[in-house]
């Protein structure tokens, strides 16, 4: 069995070797990170690679395949061709015009006076914000509550910090005949959630709107989480990168805006998701100084600094949006409307071959139930211990030319077998991609016959 001697290289190692153990030396001596074998990350990489082949309609990977808004592109052009000093370092914790507008913009939404120097940290994407938060706050033996299904990096990031993941699953309500299920029907059991809090609980990570389910947690659900976090003195890491993509009249509520929660919440955002520019890799964390100071220490001694020009472009993009915010001309309004149309298109199309989408309230994603097809094709090729959804996605890519992600990779190992009849679809795609999807699905329907 191979091992990696550097925690920063585990992703690269997983690509090459798919290791189950990563070893490095920390302040207290040797540390060993045991990952599921293969890890959720390596499985995700596998499906992304398969979906990238020629003639495959890639509905798996979560990125828009259309341009960012014109004002954002122009902002980046200004940053590249304007002030030559934007080619140099800026302030380590964030380009000042960006930290100022983040403080101003989100301060109004959260009802807080946000200090741009003490309460804001700009990171290399929201992924970097998550990693920095785990490294800064989670110590050896600390427990981190993770709500399933979960964004795949939460578990390995907890383990890399020396923590212990504690899982609690959203439970779907029984299916209603003749109606599509909604992700709002997937609920936490309050008693089960409360039982997960112990004297070792350091943090709970809350993703709303969520990936992969698309669930927008209601105010009542957030109040339950907030109450337990306050009762047990637990930090809430709020991953809110999809906050502008909420559908059907639902409302996104930041848990940091609830009474007593600002002082124990880290709110994470993403310029990539906000302005449809995932390659810019600009993210941020907002929170109280007592927590941010620890993230600053990790950031300063690891990343140190994020690309200045990308930060400048994001700052100018927020300035544009701030002028239009809440109006029909707002990009956040227009992008949400366009994404809801794409969601509805994809949900209609998937049903023609017997897939049953779960209606998402937000995000880039929906999951779809493949139980009907599983009953007709129970013995797809694959390893004996490979979840059915994984085998199904490989079959669908090879035989139908459609890429997706199996939902079981978003669950802890003991729970995967209970949720191996769903796949994740990204619907925030260009119209040409959706048309190509329709052709593939129509061909599939024709092959099924009457």
UniProtKB/TrEMBL annotation:
InterPro entries registered for this protein in UniProt: Aminotransferase_I/II_large, Kynurenine-oxoglutarate_AT, PyrdxlP-dep_Trfase, PyrdxlP-dep_Trfase_major, PyrdxlP-dep_Trfase_small
Cofactor dependency: pyridoxal 5'-phosphate
Pathway: Amino-acid degradation; L-kynurenine degradation; kynurenate from L-kynurenine: step 1/2
Substrates-to-products reaction catalysed: an S-substituted L-cysteine + H2O = a thiol + pyruvate + NH4(+); L-kynurenine + 2-oxoglutarate = kynurenate + L-glutamate + H2O
Domain Aminotransferase class I/classII large stretches: 55-435
UniProt record similarity statement: Belongs to the class-I pyridoxal-phosphate-dependent aminotransferase family.
Protein name: Kynurenine--oxoglutarate transaminase 1 isoform X5
